[in-house]
Amino acid sequence: MLSDPTGSWTPVALSVDLPPGTVVPARTPAGPIALWRSASGRPSASADRCPHRGMRLSHGFVRGETLSCIYHGWSYGAAGNCLRIPAHPGLSPPETIRVATHPVEEAGGVIWVGVGEPATQPPQLAGLVPLRSLQAQAGMAALEAAAGAKADENGLLETTQNSQEIRLLLAFQERDETLIHVLLDGDSSLLERIAVSRAVEALRRKAEAIEAEGSSR
Amino acid sequence: MTQDAMIDEWYPVGLVSQLDSFGRKTALMGEPIDVASDADGNARVTANGRTLPVCVRYGHVWSSLGQPQKELFAIPEADQPGRRFVDVGVVRVRCSPLRAVENFLDIAHFPFVHTDILGSEPHTEVQNYKVEIREDADEVWATQVKFYQPQAARSASGGITTEYMYRVPAPTCSVLYKTCPPRPGEWDVITLFVQPLAEDLCDVWPWMALFDDESSMTDLIHFQQTIFLQDRSILENQIPRLLPLDPGMEIPTRADLTSVAYRRWLKRHGYTYGAQLVAQ
Amino acid sequence: MKLYNYILSPSCYKVRLMAALIGVRLELRPVDFHPGGEHRGPELMALNPAGSIPILEDGDLVLTESSAILVYLAAKAAPEWLGSGKAEEAARVQQWLSFSGRLTASLGGARLHEMLLRPGDIGAFQAQGIAALRELEAGLFEQGLRGQRFLAADRPTVADIACFPYVALAPDGGVSLDPYPAIRLWSRAIRALDGFIEMPGIHRLHELKPEPHIEPGEA
Ligand SMILES: N[C@H](CCC(=O)N[C@@H](CS)C(=O)NCC(=O)O)C(=O)O
Ligand code: FES
């Protein structure tokens, strides 16, 4: 998470995990979001709650440039305004029906969502490309302890695991839960990629054991 | 939230057909209870050694933690010859018992949640219908509800416009009357009886009284289980878990007038177990 | 071919789904699994002493393991669903067919407990379910690196059908699918296959249909 006085950016997902025409659940420090990409490729983030009857919008579906709720099919545009209420085909939904939205930036294969109005852009991950995301039932401190290294102010952490160099981008989810994005050099071979992925799984096991021990004490 | 005015209501706590002397350990509004048959084969419900009121009706055993002021609501069709009575069986849902009832009163979700069975695009329009709180019976009623359905019942072949009437005779129970394909002029009766285990957890006992001489009992059970299990994944993902009774938190439209009346009726009676009063 | 079927059983759904995808017609014999417990009654116990469904009957042949039923249907009607037969691919198919039994025990156990009130150690079911989902996620991620979208190949096989139902229905047992991007993409790819059918708890991919244009009063 990158903070400035007016807001912060959270790396919520990798670009490859959000193909055009799909919606996925994600989390920011301000709460759960529905992260979606329109058919034309534009990513958007809205609160994960439909204002009609509270259904999670991340369970919905994307048609063209709109996100629809799975419960009664109300659809919303990228700006969060309600565009259509299928039960009342003749009605233009009033302006007041809308979901809260968040700014989204996509760079270097990572999707960042802003909370507040961050004055700066999300950090560049020079020379690195994302490999995969995985969630750990462990807080930042347990992950740092397992890695034997500290994350910097952008959430970047470098360490060596099973003599494998690994670089992670960490995003806070909850006190004892962290989203890990694995990064590596763009020219890594298939075998190197698999080795890094497995090394990060080993690191996760270690961090979760530390977390479990900490919370059972 | 307390158990409030709802404590004196009757709730379903088990199937009569599954009563045995070993008993079923369950709960009612947060209190552990035991539902068993006694030496004479009668239903007996106890909470911590205390014997609770019991009523056996509509295929289910009913009980209450308080002192019910009224008899269990009447469903006259339950005594009508020629109907088949279907015990659909229990399904647990991690949601407010009131949200489970409200979903049952809603037709606008049919095309999206019960796709190609109870509804389908482009037939999504909800036409105006009538809603009232009947003061004499103290029940919520919605009538003249019409909707286009691709497969309205197990016995239906092909799409028809179905007419519905909905009735809420108790805070966690609803009875729906629906056009009956094999018997024009009669109504099929489909109920949702909800046992509140906690404010955000319930056991749902659907039950039906149908005119259908064709389908096997198992087919009838499976049809209704299919419908309810499609709803379950919605109910477990509504936020907040509790039903918001104050306007502001959720936005109703004309299609939601039954839900609006249901919420108003709950609030008026102080039926708030499973509800959220203040927008959070 | 006769399938002893329960509409809410993910294991029976594997068979219905496979048959739908390859165009095999099944005669369905509904079983009152819940609330009736018919699968433990004399008629079905005589067919399958294990007291489980699905059961597939085809003439003299009686099959009681869903993986075997999938293989039977595919071998008869659409052998490409068995995989190409190359050593590594054949092994991967077997790997995930065996693995699917762990999904039944863990995620299936959690689902029966949370939904139909079956007794059991829910904490253990859920923990084992999460462990299995993580293995599947890692497996699918590595397949993606190899340029393959499905568990054993770049096309679906019986292994995908054996694993898909309990995974897709994990939330029924209180196990979230939110943390698994590779599983999400794979599940979507399966749901988008020609001939795909749903079961309760798995919603239609409404985006596969264009937005209808509706005039009021027309509906
Ligand atoms: N033989 C296994 C069994 C599948 C299974 O567990 N089926 C469940 C229904 S989903 C069952 O019959 N369980 C027996 C019971 O729970 O009583 C298979 O075909 O994969
Ligand atoms: S809850 Fe989203 S459309 Fe009704």
From TrEMBL, chain B:
Where are the coiled-coil regions? none
The Vanillate O-demethylase oxygenase-like C-terminal catalytic domain covers which part of the protein? 93-268
Q: Do the record's keywords include Hydrolase?
A: no
Q: Which InterPro entries match?
A: Cholesterol_7-desaturase (IPR050584), VanA_C_cat (IPR044043)
Q: Which GO terms describe its molecular function?
A: dioxygenase activity
Q: Which domain of life is it from?
A: Bacteria
- Which UniProt keywords are present, listed alphabetically? Dioxygenase, Oxidoreductase
The record's annotation in SUPFAM superfamilies points to:
Bet v1-like (SSF55961)
Q: Does the keyword NAD apply?
A: no
Q: Which Pfam families match?
A: VanA_C (PF19112)
What name has this protein been given in UniProt? Phenylpropionate dioxygenase-like ring-hydroxylating dioxygenase large terminal subunit
UniProtKB/TrEMBL annotation, chain C:
Q: What is this protein called?
A: Glutathione S-transferase
Annotated family: Belongs to the GST superfamily.
Q: What class of enzyme is it?
A: transferase
Q: Which organism is it from?
A: Mycoplana azooxidifex
Q: Which InterPro entries match?
A: Glutathione-S-Trfase_C-like (IPR010987), Glutathione-S-Trfase_C_sf (IPR036282), Glutathione_S-Trfase (IPR040079), Glutathione_S-Trfase_N (IPR004045), GST_C (IPR004046), Thioredoxin-like_sf (IPR036249)
The GST C-terminal domain, residue ranges: 86-212
Q: Where is the GST N-terminal domain?
A: 1-81
Q: What CDD domains does this protein map onto?
A: GST_N_4
